[in-house]
Amino acid sequence: MSVAGLIFSNIHDSAVPEFTTVRTMASVPFGCRYRLIDFPLSNMVNSGITKIGIITHNNYQSLMDHIGTGKDWDLARRSGGIKVLPPFITAYEGATGSKLYTTRLEALMGVMNFISRCNEDYLVLSDCDGICNIDLSEVIDFHIEKNADLTVVTRRLSADEADIKDATAISAEEDGAVKDASAYLRGVSGNEVSTNIVVVSRMFLLGALRDAAAHGYKHFYKDIVARRIGRARIYRYMYEKTFVHINSLEGYFASSMKLLDPTVRNGLFNVENMPIYTKLRNSAPTRYTSSAKVTNSYVADGCVIEGTVENCILFRGVRIGKGTVVKNCVLLQDTFTGNNVSLNCVITDKNAVICDGRMLSGHSSMPFFIPKGAMV
Length: 376
Known about the structure:
Elements: E1 3-8, H1 17-20, E2 29-30, E3 34-35, H2 38-46, E4 51-55, H3 61-67, E5 81-85, H4 91-95, H5 104-110, H6 112-117, E6 122-126, E7 130-132, H7 136-145, E8 150-156, E9 168-172, E10 178-183, E11 192-201, H8 202-215, H9 220-225, E12 234-238, E13 243-245, H10 249-258, H11 262-269, E14 287-288, E15 293-295, E16 298-299, E17 304-305, E18 308-310, E19 313-314, E20 319-320, E21 325-327, E22 330-331, E23 336-337, E24 342-344, E25 346-348, E26 353-354, E27 359-361, E28 368-370
Parallel strand pairs: 1-4, 1-6, 4-5, 8-12, 14-17, 15-18, 16-19, 17-20, 18-21, 19-22, 21-24, 22-25, 23-26, 24-27, 25-28
Antiparallel strand pairs: 2-3, 6-11, 7-13, 8-11, 9-10
């Protein structure tokens, strides 16, 4: 059994434009010191996949800075390793004003050269906006056991996700054989949806991509999966453990707040023999002064806290000034708050500065966002 991985870094950039105007979805920070791409990368590495391609679109400088040579994921290798796949466009297409890919299927067609050159029998496809710690070797074993052409990893929606957008509903028989794949509609299509993690036989995928190119198909689930139900062996694998999905700024805030629940946090970061790897940054331990008061918060290293922090996620290097009260906030790396500041339901991007005496408040359904490098 030989498996390679493909990660889509930009597919859902439009979901969180506040973050993705300056970076890809894959490099959006999450969980104090991680980026979203750390989760699919770690899932693949923990499952023995050592050849991984990352499909890019635009704004991928920060992604390349984060990944580097892949050393932190043990992917700095002569054979295999990590490969950044820039968007493919020919000189002719560029001269005629053709645009880069806009769908998952077009992205795959753009990297057909990588897929065709792979010697591996199977490919694992994964997005970055679904956060989980999954043993992909179990999914691959299921795929092989069923002699499947394509296996979609699915999950059940929680009650607070009933209005989820842009999801694909999956309906299957008792043995896992997929009988329908359609756009999710609340109250119509059930609550089992794709996680956008797919295991596919490489030769089957190549054939499907060539057929899609010949017929002008655009949509992966509608034109590749749904059209082949009954003609190909398509199965679903139900994933029932911790899964967090980001599809909006409010979703990012809610997903971050879920990390304060030990069950969710342990389901992502404390799975036996399944660590989540990230780029190392050596920082001093967080310093708490005599006036600091911190409750129910997730705090990275390198912070200096002199005020009150409650129900917050603090990334590396955050500074909380004297007399400052921060509640229900997500403060990204190197955010600086002055003295006597009051924050509630606020998200700051990296290097934001909040001056003395400021009072800022949002709501869990509409958090207040401060862009990267902004001063308030």
